Amino acid sequence: MPLALLRRMRTKRPDRGSGLRMPLPVGAGAFSCEVLDPVGQALGGVEVTVTETRGAARTVAKATTDPHGLFLATLEPGQYTVLLTGSGLQPNRLTVDIVPGQSEPPRRVQMEPSQQLELPPPGTWLFDPPHTAIRFIARHVGMANVHGRFTRFRGGIHIAERMEDSRVEVVIDASSINTGNNTRDAHLRSADFLDVDNFPEIHFASNRFTWRSGPKWTLQGPLTMHGVSRSVTLDTTYLGAVNGGYEQELRCAALATAELHREDYTLNWRNMLARGIAVVGPTVKLELDIQAMYRNHNTPTPPE
Question: Where is the stretch described as Disordered (predicted)?
Answer without folding.
Answer: 101-124
